[in-house]
Design a protein that fits this description.
The complex is a heterodimer of chains A (216) and B (575).
Chain A (H helix, E strand, L loop, with lengths): L1 E5 L3 H13 L3 E6 L2 H11 L3 E5 L9 H12 L4 E6 L4 H8 L6 E5 L6 H12 L3 E3 L1 H8 L14 H11 L4 H8 L3 H14 L11 H11 L1
Parallel strand pairs in A: 1-2, 1-3, 3-4, 4-5, 5-6
Chain B lengths: L1 H23 L11 H21 L5 H15 L7 H9 L4 H11 L8 H13 L1 H9 L21 H32 L2 H29 L7 H40 L6 H9 L5 E6 L4 E3 L5 E2 L9 E7 L2 E8 L7 H55 L1 H18 L6 H26 L2 H6 L1 H11 L4 E6 L6 H21 L5 E8 L2 E8 L11 H12 L3 E5 L6 E8 L2
Parallel strand pairs in B: 6-7
Antiparallel strand pairs in B: 1-2, 1-5, 2-3, 4-5, 7-8, 8-10, 9-10
Classes of the chains: A alpha/beta (216), B alpha+beta (575).
Chain lengths: 216, 575
């Protein structure tokens, strides 16, 4: 699998490249800002672009803007955005361009090689990845009045959070040490309790869940 | 001075009586203007106003000028006398008094010929007096319309035709010169400062009217209508009003000095709200008056708003009069040069107002210090803000990145050492500890300056703040543009502190956060439905917020009646 990398900090760029190589990915090029990344994606046609949010010249959200351009021009390229901060707004903006093949992770998550490999693979194959810390902000927030989340059991809320992170039923089953069948049952209950239209597709339900949670 | 004036007055009265007697006993066959009544009116006006002005304004030469003009006018009445020598003198000086009259109008109110144009005009008037004398050398009719006049003692030839031509020339040139003078006076008046214009107006109106009447009389004389004495009468009546107008203006200034007493009373009884400048401007009759206060520390003059003022030096349009108290400068009055004619008035006003001015000076100094203090507070807040942003950036680019890089290395190490069973758990433990450190660092950075505030502005950051709040929160955020850094930061920290307080102390069930811009200021309101009873003195947190908002020239209020929730409101200028 071919991966392109953009981060203005040399230390992190090189470190991430080594980790990806170690995990068996082919790093096709490194970029230091958004423009370089766009040129790189154009010339090297990677399967996934991994991009830091805050980069020169404004040091605000260049990575996010580059991601948006890539989604427009090269929709088949998966995008994994890395951030040093938990920023639910940025994650939502990213997902609003479509949940297929996008991900938003805190930078330090990449130190877990397995987690990194799994996230890159999911994004490359059109799935979505959302950092647990961001999901936590949605699931954990308290709202005035009647909160439909109160109607879920603890286990169902756990499953809901993992769904929001973009995990498949199988992955959730593995995480929770239960059978696929049990997860399916939980998912059906959750969708029922929250009055969401049933969405069997693992990939598309992230948006449904996040949209629901954000609207609360 | 007084005995001399008495002498002048008595002499004038005698001369006037003589002139009136002559006018009353004009030969029936050659009546001339003015008649006895007009002679009395104009003579009394010139002499009386001249003497009164002389007494009121001894330093101004217009009083004596008017008295001299009166004597000249009386002398011109000798033309009605029967003895030949008197008749001859009367004829020769018939128009001389007009020189004084013109001088009066051209130089009012200073009494000095100030421009070259003035001197030329006066020269022209004097030159015109030669023509009647020349005419008298030629004929006996000079200046008279009679057949049976006494002898003209300086007559040389008998060429009445020549004499009439000379007189016609004098009237023609005189009428033209008068029109020019009226034009000059009106133009000068239109260009004058408001104070001068106001003061000169009565004299100017009366003078110009009388000049125009004289010009009309001279023009009618040209067409030889000796019986039509109406314009001449009009001229003499109008002329009689001029000395009275001069006296009126002088006395008005005199009354203004009386106004100083009123000023003292006004300043003594007035409260702090009195406009000192207004009162002084009124007393001095100069609406353009400005006050400047001496700031000893800065060694400069400053206006009421605290801005430095440069005193006019060699300025044709402005004058500065310095006010001192116990030998120390306290203020300066910047006024119209017109008041130079009335230095006495300005000085008495300065003396009367010195205490009030000193008071005002101290207040102005205080205001300037407050402005400086406010600016320095704002600078401090701005500097603190910039420093916060710098620290956040340094942590982001430095420590945070190094820690993440170490975490990556640990991950790599873990992947490369899968077989060493005892190292695995230790590595995972280290990585977990590192993750906690990073999380703490992230929280710390967020507390110093929320990245979203820097990157996306107030609404985005407040939205995020509400999302992360532990109490249910309803945001209503209507700030759709970027505001100055320090304004955004202040508003953010007010909201952040308010939400934290609500969560900690208020027992509230929900909070409303509203932010909007209106009339150049940012409004922020955080309301909870808790127990209330919070005060700005209760926690240093609220005091600190108030300081921050007020340093930016804003207002911070807390409304927290017991049992009825708490509302924090911040209004910060953000134009």
């Amino acid at each position: 699998m071919r991966v392109a990398l953009a981060d203005d900090a040399v230390l992190l760029r090189e470190g991430l490249a080594r980790l990806l190589t170690e995990a068996g990915f082919e790093v096709v090029g490194l970029a230091a800002d958004g423009d370089e990344l766009l040129a790189l994606v154009e010339s090297a046609a990677p399967d996934v672009a991994i991009v830091d949010i805050r980069m020169p010249p404004t040091h605000t959200d260049e990575g996010l803007r580059a991601a948006r351009v890539i989604r427009e021009r090269w929709p088949s390229v998966g995008i994994l955005v890395l951030s040093q901060h938990v920023n639910a707004r940025y994650a939502l903006e990213l997902l609003s361009t479509g949940t297929d093949g996008v991900g938003y992770l805190l930078k330090e998550r990449v130190s877990d090689l397995e987690e990194l490999a799994s996230s890159v693979n999911r994004v490359a194959h059109g799935g979505s990845v959302l950092d647990p810390a961001v999901v936590g902000e949605f699931v954990g927030r308290r709202r005035a009045g009647d909160n439909p989340l109160e109607r879920l059991t603890d286990r169902e809320r756990e499953v809901l959070a993992l769904m929001a992170e973009g995990r498949s039923n199988r992955a959730i089953a593995e995480r929770l040490y239960v059978t696929d069948h049990t997860v399916e049952k939980h998912v059906k209950n959750i969708f029922g309790s929250l009055c969401l239209p049933p969405s069997p597709d693992d990939h598309r339900r992230v948006l449904a869940v996040i949209t629901y949670l954000n609207a609360q | 001075m007084k005995p001399k004036l008495w002498v002048v007055a008595v002499a004038g009265a005698l001369a006037g009586a003589g002139a009136v007697w002559l006018a009353a006993h004009q030969p029936a066959n050659r009546p001339t203007e003015p008649d006895a009544v007009l002679t009395l009116v104009l003579g009394a006006s010139l002499l009386g106003s001249g003497l009164a002005s002389w007494r009121a304004r001894p330093e101004n030469r217009l009083g004596p000028v008017m008295v001299l003009t009166a004597f000249g006018f009386f002398a011109s009445q000798l033309i009605d006398a029967r003895p030949a020598w008197m008749y001859t003198v009367g004829n020769a000086v018939q128009y001389v008094w007009l020189i004084g009259f013109l001088y009066l109008l051209l130089t009012f109110p200073t009494g000095r010929l100030e421009s070259r144009l003035d001197r030329w005009l006066m020269g022209g008037v004097v030159a015109l007096m030669v023509l009647p004398l020349l005419a008298m050398l030629d004929g006996n009719k000079a200046g008279l319309r009679c057949d049976s006049c006494p002898d003209n003692l300086i007559q040389i030839t008998h060429d009445n035709h020549e004499a009439m031509n000379l007189l016609g020339l004098q009237r023609l040139l005189g009428a033209a010169l008068l029109v020019v003078i009226v034009g000059v006076l009106i133009r000068r008046w239109l260009r004058a400062s408001p104070a001068r214009r106001h003061a000169v107006a009565p004299v100017l109106v009366a003078g110009c009217a009388s000049f125009l009447a004289l010009a009309a009389t001279a023009t009618l004389d040209l067409f030889g209508d000796p019986l039509n004495s109406l314009p001449a009468n009009v001229f003499f009546y109008l002329t009689a009003t001029v000395p009275i107008a001069v006296l009126f203006v002088f006395l008005q200034r005199q009354l203004a000095r009386g106004g100083v007493a009123g000023l003292v009373v006004e300043l003594g009884t007035a409260g702090a709200g009195t406009d000192l400048r207004e009162a002084l401007a009124r007393t001095l009759g100069d609406p353009s008056l400005q006050l400047a206060y001496w700031f000893p520390a800065e060694r400069c003059y400053v206006d009421g708003a605290g801005s430095p003022v440069r005193l006019p030096v060699d300025d044709a349009d402005r004058r500065a009069t310095l006010v001192e108290r116990d030998g120390q400068p306290i203020a300066a009055l910047l006024h119209d040069p017109f008041l130079d004619n009335d230095i006495g008035l300005v000085q008495s006003v300065c003396a009367a107002a010195s205490l009030a001015l000193e008071n005002e000076r101290l207040q102005a100094e205080l205001r300037a210090r407050l402005v400086e203090l406010q600016a320095s507070r704002a600078r401090l807040v701005g500097a603190t803000d910039a420093e916060r942003r710098r620290i956040e950036r340094d942590l982001h680019d430095g420590t945070q990145q190094r820690l993440v890089s170490i975490a990556m290395s640990l991950g790599l190490l873990e992947a490369k050492l899968p077989a060493r069973g005892d190292a695995g758990p230790l590595l995972r433990e280290t990585r977990a500890a590192l993750a906690v450190a990073l999380e703490e660092l992230r929280e710390l950075t967020h507390g110093i300056t929320p990245p979203l505030l820097v990157e996306r502005g107030l609404s985005a950051a407040l939205d995020e703040l509400c999302r992360r709040a532990s109490l249910p929160t309803h945001p209503r955020l209507e700030v759709d543009r970027r505001l100055p850094d320090e304004v955004e930061s202040a508003a953010y920290f007010v909201a952040s502190e308010a939400l934290a307080n609500a969560a900690k102390h208020s027992h509230a069930t929900e909070v409303r956060v509203a932010a909007w811009c209106a009339r150049g200021q940012l409004n922020l309101e955080v309301t909870d439905d808790g127990i209330g009873g919070a005060g700005p003195d209760g926690g240093s947190g609220l005091r600190g917020l108030a300081d921050r908002v007020e340093a930016l020239g804003g207002r911070f209020t807390v409304s927290s009646p017991p049992g009825r929730g708490t509302t924090l409101r911040a209004e910060i200028p953000c134009a």
